[in-house]
Amino acid sequence: MTTPLSTLAGKVRPRGRVAEERRGRLTYPVVLLIIAGALLLLSLVRAITDQQSLTSAAQWGAAMGFAVPIGLAGLGGLWAERAGVINIGLEGMMMLGLFSAGWIGWQHGPWAAVLAGVVGGALGGLLHAVATVTFGVDHIVSGVAINILALGVVQYLAKLWFAAEGSEALARGGNDKQSPQMDRLEPFTVPGISDWLGDLDAKNWFLLSDLAGILRAAVHEVSWLTLLAVLIFVGTYLVLWKSSFGLRLRSCGENPEATESLGVNVYLYKYLALAVSGGLAGLGGAYLAVLIRMYQDGQTGGRGYLGLATMIFGNWRPGGVAAGAGLFGFMDVLQTRDRPVVHAMLLLFALGLLVLAVWQFYRGKRAAAMAIAVLGGVMWLWYETTDTLPLELVTASPYLTTLLVLTLFAQRLRTPRAVGRPYRRGQAT
User: CB-based contacts of 2: which residues, under 8 Å, 6+ apart?
Assistant: First the structure.
């Protein structure tokens, strides 16, 4: 049955809801202004602290590598929750993708590993669909169970397939904690542009060199999987927001009863969404396996949960997920840098919070502006009275950043209306 798009949109999203979504959405000029302001703050902090790595191509290239698996997990969560299903099991699906990629990769190469990772994650997503959509299991309970189950499964299979006595995997360096190494997936570099941006970055000019260093990260030794992830983000936007399929899928997360009354198979769309969700999380796990050229126990490191945070920070939209993944990836890579670099981030956060406080005051939210200004002042004082940070804080910096960002932006969140709500076929009649 063909469903008129205007009828479907009107029934599943009342006009007040549409207006509310538009008010919570950032326009392109505002986004560009935010990006320009962030670049200016980064340049200023780099000049004040003399921490050149804050805007270096190496820093941002590594941050992009850390951001990709987080962003893919967040995008997986977006597909699931736009269809009305909470997917706490992203971490477990990433584990399945990581293991599948490591298992296939050492035998058939990195591209086969990528495909295996997608399949492994999709199987986890379908298991979540069976539990939540068909049998009506609580979404949180099912997701947590998948995380626990995936951890046990991959550890058991690693002992069975990588550490068996006399096996080829064991002879090639496998054990119960890791698979044998796969071939390296060579990155690509854009000739000419990369060298020119590198020369400009080396001059240490205010703002201009900082911009060159950040841009060079996108053209110098970039993984093909990073390019694939960018295309997937663009494709997700086009499919979910510019196609009839996407409208029907999103309507399942807004008002499944009205959607069913218009002839849409809600169960099918939820199953498809969860298969894609798991596949994207599995691709994030495969990215990690290809990056280090093997499966390694514990390599996901909670990135599935960070992916959920990016989904919430991004207001359930691909562009916001990408921005959140970039932020958390940047903070994640700081763990591998010297502590003075993380210490310099205190100044960046202090200045950013003070700018946000001024904006909130301008909008008339004086209580929020005062609270944000106080927090910014505390960070400024912390920066001025210390020279470094404890190692424990450096390690926890990505998660502390997650809490801070979600706290500050919680008021603009617009969740899909029916997400997490039990749905049974026939409720519309």
Answer: none
